[in-house]
Amino acid sequence: MPARLFLSSGDLIADRRFEFARDLKLKGDLVAAADLLLQATELAPNFTSAWFTLGEIREQLGAREQAIEAFRKAHAADPDDRHGASLRLIRLGAEALSEMPSAYVQALFDQYAPRFESALVDDLGYRGPALLFKAVLSVRAAARKPAFFRRAIDLGCGTGLAAVAFAKEVDRFIGIDLSPRMIERARATSLYAELEADDMLRGLRSKPDGSADLILAADAMVYVSDLAPVLIETKRVLVTDGLFAFTVETHGGEGVTLGEGLRYAHGAAYVRATIVAAGLKLSHWDGLSARNEDNVPVPGLVLVAAKA
Ligand SMILES: C[S@@+](CC[C@H](N)C(=O)[O-])C[C@H]1O[C@@H](n2cnc3c(N)ncnc32)[C@H](O)[C@@H]1O
Question: What is the pTM (predicted TM-score) of this model?
Fold first, then answer.
């Protein structure tokens, strides 16, 4: 995991109490850590990081209602929600499922960027781009069409691993990602003609009709709850016969849930229905996992939707 986000309170003494509290937390003295954090928030009532950490500790201590109160204060102190307090509230059943705060995703991956590839590929056995590559080749082979694409868009491109996998098959890549630090890494690959630090939906909306032959989203739709708006835009942006290849994490139930790892899991029936409702054709469907968690494959789907 990336280093923890810290947002200074602007008050030196409150910040120092926070640091002591974090040390106590690491040593396992949760009660003393919670006490110090509360003192820090008395000095600096809008101290987001202190409220957020207090929420985590209270949750660990089994004090659900108090944890909810602390996460609510963290969210109120930072409406952009860089810590993702709203996600913790969803997990605690205190708020309805909603989209991830953009500022949270950006802060998470900005911090993650320097060690993203080693963490994901080496530690979590990440294989999203390779799975998408195989799926796209098989769809093209079944259609007796060459697997060559003039213009591709990589949604949530990260450091550029999908562009590496598809480099020989794509003429011109556009990458879109919320995290400027991830974009910097992607730029260093020299595989993208254009890179945009933006939300994938906003990026797609700025593209002309029929301007891409291939759209990829490798391990990126796990940060999007409602797949419909992205699927509708991909249909508009793709040429006829163009493909949208993406991975999701899934679960055995209905609809969309937010998992323990704070990524969305999309139920199989939901995914299928949303692809069809967007007017795309489901060309490929595989129950394959893009990554491991605790050395166990996370249930996943590899999908290719085509614009007929
Ligand atoms: C797990 S990484 C995967 C990166 C890359 N696709 C790969 O296969 O290595 C997820 C990426 O999606 C980006 N992301 C998440 N939600 C996004 C959104 N709504 N718009 C644009 N990028 C997003 C994150 O910033 C992060 O770089």
Answer: 0.96
